[in-house]
Amino acid sequence: FIAMYVSSAQQTCKSVAEALKGFRENLKLFLQKKLDSRPNLPRYRKKGMFSVAYPKKWLKLQEGKVRVPLGNQVTAWFGLDSFWIQFPTNLKWEDIRELRILPRHGVFYLEWVYTKPAQPQPLDPKRALAIDHGVNNWLTCVSNLGHSFIIDGRKVKSFNQWYNKEVARLKTDKPQGFWSQKLERITEKRNRRMRDAIHKAARKVISFCLRHSIGKIIFGWHKEQKQECNLGRVNNQNFVLIPTSRLKERIEELCRHYGIEFIEVEEAYSSQASFLDGDELPNYGEKPDGWRPSGKRIKRGLYQTAKGWLVNADANAAANLLKKVSRTLGLCLGGLSRGVLSTPLRVRLWTA
Question: CA-to-CA distance for 341 and 311, rounded, in angstroms?
């Protein structure tokens, strides 16, 4: 810590203070019974390299390169007072606020923190897109305009399952806490793939909304649905570590940027009830005695209504999410039909 550049050391102290402040605020919310779980006091970090932040005023741009100072102690030890990095050509220097250097699994990331003003768009608040999340069908989207599409999740599932199998193989007969350079490499590879998938999927959803002037996104979510869950060895590899929560957060961030209203809806019974048959949708834990859905899921991905119509099971669930909030938000569901729920377009993230 003594060897750090002074401004970077100050930023580290500020981050510790922010963490403690956040802990106190969350503890107050917990004591007021506004949080379900008690927050934990920030702990000492594990040994190893830590992220370093440089405010812009200590950086210097010259001929497309940025000088990053290292401080007097490093100069005395190694005779090196600074190093130079290439400045990204797609950013403007006047917008930069901070540079962060992050060590992750044997490599370093440079993060440029910059301001990006919101870009609210002229959208129709009566148009809404409902999103039901899953595994093979990562996001199933249905709009009240009569559109439906699926963000394919099978590639993400495959990447995740491969990673878990490799970690299990490399840790076989090894002591507790074993780690190696190969584990670092495959972990970093997996994380890069997941980040890429999150940004691609979120951008496709938001682009669709902007193209059709959709002003609301309804996201079906059950809090803590993956906490301490045990679905069996195979299903755990497919589901528990797929970063759907981070994807939801990214979509919410983009919604704030473009002026789209993001609404999180409790998704209980949306997969069981039949939208085309007009089934009622009780809240979680409030199912009336004798409540039974009109239709049923006859196999994976296929739902049969009371009239014998076959529709996509996830599209049926997404339509039910729209129905849950239609009265409150004043949404018209006249554009939804059997055809919309039967043939959603499948969108693959890594193909043209």
Answer: 5
